[in-house]
Amino acid sequence: MDRESNMSSAMAQKAHNLFQVYLRLRPSQGGSSTTGERFLAVEEPEAHHTAPKHITLNPPNDRRRAVEKFAFTQVFEEDATQLDVFHCTGVANLVEGVLAPHGGEGTDALLATLGVTGSGKTHTMLGSRSQRGLTQLALDVIFRSLGHNILDCGSDPTLEHSIGASDGSEATVFSASAFLDNVYADPSATMRASSRAPTPMIGESFGPTPTPSRRLHRPSVFPQQPDVSSLSVSCDPSAEYAVVISMYEVYNDRIFDLLTPPIKSVATKEYRRRPLLFKSTETSSDRKVVAGLRKVVCGTLNQALMVLEAGLHERRVAGTGSNSVSSRSHGFFCVEVRKRPKSSRRHAYDAPWGGSALTIVDLAGSERAKDAKTGGATLAEAGKINESLMYLGQCLQMQSDAASKDKPNLVPFRQCKLTELLFSNCFPSTSSYSTARHRNPQKAVMIVTADPNGDYNATSQILRYSALAREVTVPRIPSLTQTILTNVAPAPAPQLLSSSPVGSPPLHHRPFFPPGSTAGAYAPQSSPNIDRTFSPMSNAGSDCHRTTMEVAALEIARLSEELDYLREAFETERAARQEAESHLLSMEDRMIELEQAIREDCTSEFERRLDIEMARWRGNMQVEMERGEEHWGRKIEVFERTLAATAPQDENMLDDLEDEDKENVLLEDINQENDRLRRENEILRRELVGMSPSKRAPLQERNSDVVPNKGGAEAAPGSPRPNPRNGNSKPLNDDGNLRRRLENLRVSDDLGSVRSSAGSTSPTKKVRKLAAKRWDGVLDDELF
Ligand SMILES: Nc1ncnc2c1ncn2[C@@H]1O[C@H](COP(=O)(O)OP(=O)(O)OP(=O)(O)O)[C@@H](O)[C@H]1O
């Protein structure tokens, strides 16, 4: 058994792959940007007249990297034509499965392309200006094969309605003529140059009532090459068919209908498409469908091609550094072939439609931002594209697990919309609904496109996860152990190796590992050196002990080789790490410098602004101070004026207050004097009353007060009689003294003041004017 047969057996194990995977190499083009060193080499097939299936990926100028070999269902070299690809990928068989010639629902088919941007996916699927792609060829075969069994809305007016009624995806069904009349302007206009749509302009769309200037030009001629007029497949003669076409794209992980015109948003005034859901509906409970699509019933190939053109016109494409017309979304073109028994035509409204679909997918290409030179929205798109392709890669890698019937759910296809759409029909329907029809798992073909002179890294990544099998050969320098063993120990026979105690497959027959598996990725495989060294042993009956020793020696050699490889890998990693660390350090230094520079800038800027602010503040302060001074000056002035106006009055008031105090003191003095005088007056009166020579007692004291006889006691003999009015008992002196005293007590009416004669020492400026009348009265009454 040699390596080729191992690869074949590995592929045979994968007979239940969810996808048949083909590889198509793109021819290099003059003036293309991808003019690097060729890194892909197609391996010659084992037998003559068979197609190649293996390709070797040679790392350019890098002996440390492993040489990888990939196996595909078939490899198409650069000179393969569209027709070659069409025939060899079995598109006709897929179509036949959809048409279900032997009755029943048929089998869904999926035809998809995968590859780096610019590697030829769209060319393969949709063709070019002069070449038809697999889509057009498949449509041609479908319509040709259906022949007269196809129904047309023109010949059967109820068709559109009956298909709509039986549709399980909440679709809006149109007849082709109604749809195309709405989209295309002039049937006689010249055909657009390319089947590849230019970048659609927002608002430049076909709507229910588009203006004629915005309508597309109706294509009059389509490419006719390659010709498949001789090819047709069988269909069910007892059934009648209808072909229903829909188109949508997956853009930024959302699904948009390509046959429904964008709607103008009231808020933003922009034309936008409403994203659709991929879900189970009431009438499609057993599987998910894209809900709410617009579907067109086509009766002829020409109608179908025009619908395809209209949809492509709406698909998002853009020019990038890698491809001038690069698809920015994953495009889905669905051809549903509905069928029902011919006998039910009379009851068209009630007859249920069955059928299957052929879905053709043109995936957006993976790209590296550096090469694509994209930015902004296009770069963000690329991120989403790469992410969805990464999920697709994971799903493809899990194919072998999913092929095992026990673990169908291991394919992680629910991670994004793209993988859900591609994989959800890969498994038999498991619905428990009694009404649900049994559905066969879809047949799927993936065509991987690659440019042998293109981007090595991107291409190798695509090949790794899409290939059906992979073999890695680690280049190495033969170790000393191996050299010794080469000279000493003959290799055991392959059949003995296969039953080795470690249970590992024979070294020189190691089969391909599934792409992405750990063993395949890291375990060193047998090298050409070992293959050359250990030839099969001729004497199979040598003794057991020797064989065991040989096996052990071989294992030692393998381990030694592995050690060498790991040591080398370790050194590589260590060097890379050191480089990364030094880069990190230099970046840290750079960051510190930057930070310092930014801080200095900030400080100087801060100081500058602070100075400006300070100057401004000082100016404001000066102005405020001047204003304040002026204000207070005015206030003081007003105050002074007010003060000047009110000063005399205040002086008088102060004088009055002073006078009042003085008057009060004087009044008190006067009252006291008054009391004294009254007492004296009384004394004198009594003296006058008691004036007789015998009784007359000399006044002993003139100026001294006489103590009144209190209690009204009878006066002693010889004591003056008390005055009956006031009770004073002071006797009066003689007439001369009396007159003098009276003279002293006389009150001047003219001055209005009282002259005190009894030693009043307080000098009085002003004397309160007293009631003279009262004094006069007293004198009149009491003295006279
Ligand atoms: N097999 C081929 N023969 C001739 N020309 C080809 C072939 N494959 C690709 N080309 C040309 O290469 C260019 C890029 O191809 P295409 O647009 O199909 O790439 P793509 O993979 O679809 O890119 P993207 O993913 O960016 O959309 C086109 O001009 C196309 O005509």
Automatic annotation (TrEMBL):
InterPro entries: Kinesin-like_fam, Kinesin_motor_dom, Kinesin_motor_dom_sf, P-loop_NTPase. SMART domains: KISc (SM00129). It comes from the Eukaryota. PROSITE patterns: KINESIN_MOTOR_2. GO terms for biological process: microtubule-based movement. Residues 732-749 have a biased composition (Basic and acidic residues). Residues 222-233, 754-764 have a biased composition (Polar residues). Signal peptide: none annotated. Residues 191-233, 689-767 are annotated as: Disordered. ATP binds at residues 115-122. Keywords: ATP-binding, Coiled coil, Hydrolase, Microtubule, Motor protein, Nucleotide-binding. GO terms for cellular component: kinesin complex; microtubule; nucleus. Residues 18-472 form the Kinesin motor domain. Residues 549-597, 660-687 form a coiled coil. PANTHER family: KINESIN-LIKE PROTEIN SUBITO (PTHR24115:SF1008), KINESIN-RELATED (PTHR24115). Belongs to the TRAFAC class myosin-kinesin ATPase superfamily. Kinesin family. This is P-loop containing nucleoside triphosphate hydrolase protein.
